[in-house]
Here is the input.
Amino acid sequence: MVGCLGNLYYSVENLSQTYIQPNQDEDSLLKPETTGLTQVLLLLTNESRTPISSEEKYYICLGCRIYISDNTTLICPSCRWYMNSEVTYIAPPTVNTSSSDEGGFVKGLVTYIVMDDLVVKPMSTISCITLINKFNVRKVGALEEKVVDITMAEGFGAAKGITAVQGCVN
Here is the structure.
């Protein structure tokens, strides 16, 4: 896998087990045992995030049924059929975890940095110094910290945009 999506995949693959929730496994993200449609919806939903509303509609093609869209005018990039067959989202059962009440796949107390090429790393003093050196920053005082909170819809939109950028997925 190459490009930005490959970087995202390899970031999860190389993430140390110490950052992953005790009740989770990176293979559930990297090699899910579900159909393509379910994979996308499971990644989009989480108890700690805003649940998918019953008003949101998702569509697949009737050809390969690999991709999902929220727009019926799109054509499937694999089989070239219209993405106009509505699917119903069924929420996964809630899992009671005794070791952690946090949702998600990674531990919540860790801050992560996401680079513009979708490389994801846990934030630490060492990683900050490495980035400062990598980008040849001379005036450390000129740097600003910026925390960006995004909603589920914004994250989904960004993911759609990333796959549309020619230079990112090549």
